[in-house]
């Protein structure tokens, strides 16, 4: 098999193509369609926990504000998808509401866990520089340490 060396016009076309690609990449980097400040207003969701009775889900939201982050614990009721056939496993789906904030940023809560009877939550909370193990009853929604 004969080695093929590119001709001069092929090299020129290749170099021009590379220059155009690099230039378009630099140009695209200059357009800032998503400013850095916008990333600080994004809320992330994590640590979703389904209650033992399968009726509720709690989850943690985290929002960055300046150099700090603030967590909150939210609760949403689940319903059963009645559109599924009898042979399918019943799938929990979010209920009619979008959720209720149970614990706000004043506790900066994290790691919610259900009691076995699905009536209480335990979570870690931070106030100032002190870390607490907290409890919350779904009936009165009062945080206790």
Helix-strand blueprint:
Blueprint: H1 8-30, H2 36-39, E1 43-50, E2 56-65, E3 68-80, E4 92-94, E5 100-103, E6 110-114, E7 120-127, E8 130-137, E9 143-144
Antiparallel strand pairs: 1-2, 2-3, 3-4, 3-5, 6-7, 7-8, 8-9
Based on the model shown, name its key terms.
single chain; 145 residues; alpha+beta; 5-stranded antiparallel beta sheet; 4-stranded antiparallel beta sheet; 42% strand; elongated
Order of helices and strands: HHEEEEEEEEE
Percent helix among the residues?
10-25%
What is the residue-mean pLDDT, rounded to a whole number? 76
The poorly predicted ranges are 86-92
Describe this protein's structure.
- By secondary structure, this protein is of the alpha+beta class.
- It has helices at 8-30, 36-39; strands at 43-50, 56-65, 68-80, 92-94, 100-103, 110-114, 120-127, 130-137, 143-144.
- 19% of the residues lie in helices and 42% in strands.
- The strands form two sheets. Strands 1, 2, 3, 4 and 5 form a five-stranded antiparallel sheet that branches. A four-stranded antiparallel sheet has the order 6-7-8-9, with no helix packed on it.
Structure in a nutshell:
With 145 residues, the protein is an alpha+beta fold. The chain contains two helices and nine strands. β1 and β2 form a beta hairpin.
């Amino acid at each position: 098999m004969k080695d093929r060396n590119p001709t001069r016009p092929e090299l020129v076309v290749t170099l021009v193509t590379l220059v155009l690609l690099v230039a378009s990449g630099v140009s695209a980097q200059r357009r800032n369609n998503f400013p850095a400040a916008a990333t600080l207003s994004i809320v992330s969701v994590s640590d979703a926990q389904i209650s033992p009775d399968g009726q509720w889900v709690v989850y943690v939201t985290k929002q960055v504000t300046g150099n700090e982050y603030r967590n909150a614990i939210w609760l949403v009721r689940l319903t059963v998808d009645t559109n599924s056939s009898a042979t399918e496993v019943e799938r929990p789906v979010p209920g009619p509401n979008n959720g209720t904030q149970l614990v706000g940023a004043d506790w900066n809560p994290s790691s919610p866990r259900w009691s076995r009877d699905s009536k209480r939550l335990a979570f870690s909370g931070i106030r100032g520089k002190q870390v607490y193990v907290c409890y919350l009853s779904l009936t009165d929604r009062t945080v206790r340490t």
